[in-house]
Amino acid sequence: MTDLLNIENLHLEFDTYDGLVKVLAGVDLRMRRGDVLGLVGETGCGKSMTALSVPRLIPMPPGRITAGRVQFNGEDILNKSESDMEAFRARHLGMIFQDPVTNLNPLFTIREQLVDAVLYQQAQGKKVPGRWRGFAPSARQLRQDAHERAVELMRLTGIPDGDRRIYDYPHQFSGGMRQRVLIAMALAGDPDLLIADEPTTALDVTIQAQILRLIRSLVSQLGLTVLLITHNLGVVARSCERVAVMYAGRVVEEAPVRELFRNPKHPYTRGLIAAVPQKEVTRGGLEGIPGMIPNLIDPPSGCRFHPRCQHVMSVCRQTVPAPVTVGEQHSTSCYLYEAPK
Amino acid sequence: MNIRFYILRRVALIIPTLVGLSLLTFAIARIVPGDPVGLAAGPRATEEIKEALRVEFGLDQPLPIQYIDYISGLFQGDWGQSLYTRREVLGDLRAFWPATLELTTAAVIIATLLGVPAGVISAMYRNRLPDHVARVLSLFFVSFPSFWLAMIFQTWFGRDLGLFPIGKRLPVLIAPPPATTGLFLVDSLVQLDFETFAVSLRHLFIPALVLSFGAFASITRITRASMVEALEKDFVRMERAIGIPYRIIIFKYVLRNALIATITVISLNFGWLMAGAILIETIFDWPGLGLYAVHASLSLDFQPIMGIAILYGIVFSVVNILTDIVYGILDPRIRYG
Lengths: 341, 337
Known about the structure:
The complex is a heterodimer.
Chain A: E1 5-16, E2 19-31, E3 36-40, H1 47-52, E4 63-72, E5 75-76, H2 82-92, E6 93-96, H3 110-123, H4 137-156, H5 162-165, H6 175-187, E7 193-197, H7 205-222, E8 226-230, H8 233-239, E9 242-247, E10 250-256, H9 257-262, H10 267-274, E11 324-327, E12 330-332
Parallel strand pairs in A: 3-8, 3-9, 6-7, 7-8
Antiparallel strand pairs in A: 1-2, 1-4, 4-5, 9-10, 10-12, 11-12
Chain B: H1 3-31, H2 36-41, H3 47-56, H4 63-75, H5 89-124, H6 129-143, H7 146-160, H8 184-190, H9 194-231, H10 234-241, H11 246-283, H12 289-298, H13 302-330
Helix pairs in contact in B: 1-13, 5-6, 5-9, 5-11, 6-9, 7-9, 8-9, 9-11, 11-12, 11-13, 12-13
């Protein structure tokens, strides 16, 4: 079976006034149909940029992909034309973002936005009869069907009273409801892959739990494939099957969720897990990772984690470790686990 | 709150605005040094003739009394009369204002029809060739004085190419359509007189085009700026990510966000153009309010000055109310109250 998504050795740079920022330095990520993969890491480690490279929404310039490829269903998407990309996104992708307040257009009703999402995702890049030419019976039927599908999507994402509330504007919805609307828009065309970029970060804790539950139930109902980006290990533990941990533009460890939490291998992953507050610890017990995230204009040589690593060896400063298998479906890029030569 | 109540309240609020405006204009018109009666009566007039004029126009009364007389006349439909021509101000405004209104409205329409697309294209192709062309054009149009451009256009299109008439609203031999609104385009259409319509459209085109340039520039710039801002919004990325075509995003979703600022500039321009039409009216021999206003203020003819100020005050207020209503149509988050 070919992978649904295969990101290989992806390098991305950003031109800034301060210099060239090496945002991604060889990201490898594979997803099969039905996977629910969590992508975790600190702010600025390149999780969102990895995610945005799939719909190819990284602003270029200033961004530039210098090496690597992104394959979807075996098809290389980095050299598609822009209009092919539009059709590709409509057909295969759904995406939700962090802030449900700014991600809905404030001037249009939910109906307007959701019906358009349905129409254009179903059309997959072909022409959709516009509003003013929409008086032909066939076009009217199309819009009527899209409207019904929109109401159905609202029901599916747990928005009560969809047939009435669809006429409301975004500001008449709460944050959690807006995120549900955005999920409904992302799902309008039955996407093969749903990319969720920090979907709960801007929400209250109780609402976070509801949205995560919704995503999980959609996964089981629709058999969705989800790439969930977050900096919150708790979110990963609750919603994903596999985790990829990123640090400074590279995936440093990848494993099934249970395996990763029980048996973290990479020193960075260990530090991350140690930094999660535990119920039992009452005072002074939180452990952090010493040091700061590196400056990606002038990143550390070799393994980018080496300046903060307790187990640093001389080889870490010189060459980049390749992923090694350390368990079932468990791999990490660290010289500590290199098979002795 | 209900929109009908909102409009009523805004209309009622015009009255205090106009009171303030009239007080100010009245004061300025009287404080300006110079003797309007002396100017009107001529250099050889005797003291008795001047005195008679003063009594006739109430200038012998104290200023507050004069003001009250004027305002109470206003409410009875008596806008006073010109010291020079002895004509009723209201009648003059009725005769001259439609020409200016027609010219300004046409200019604003041209500026909007050209400026909004230019701004949108500019923002879509930011920092690329179409953007540079639009920016240079708008810079060009704000930098060159409109009276100079007016004369150049008159020479090219009117004299050298003979495509358009050089001036006036209609040729001497064509009678203006019966005045219902005073706008020749509207009146001739009402009469189904398409020939007059076409002729007056040709007369209108060049002056309106030249008058529109300044407004075109500012509309283009503000549309570009607010489009660029709106294109950076999160929802644009979301719409692209789920596969809505860029064309739809631009013209449906982003444009409406950008238009709010543009509408403001359009309505401001409408007012500025009406006041700024004087030069264009002079060059194209356009019988509008501009010329009338210049004559009145040069000769300190105070009643027409007051009349024009009040008319423009009303126009500005009405345009402002309309703009606020359009805001509410564009942005559902705006509540009236």
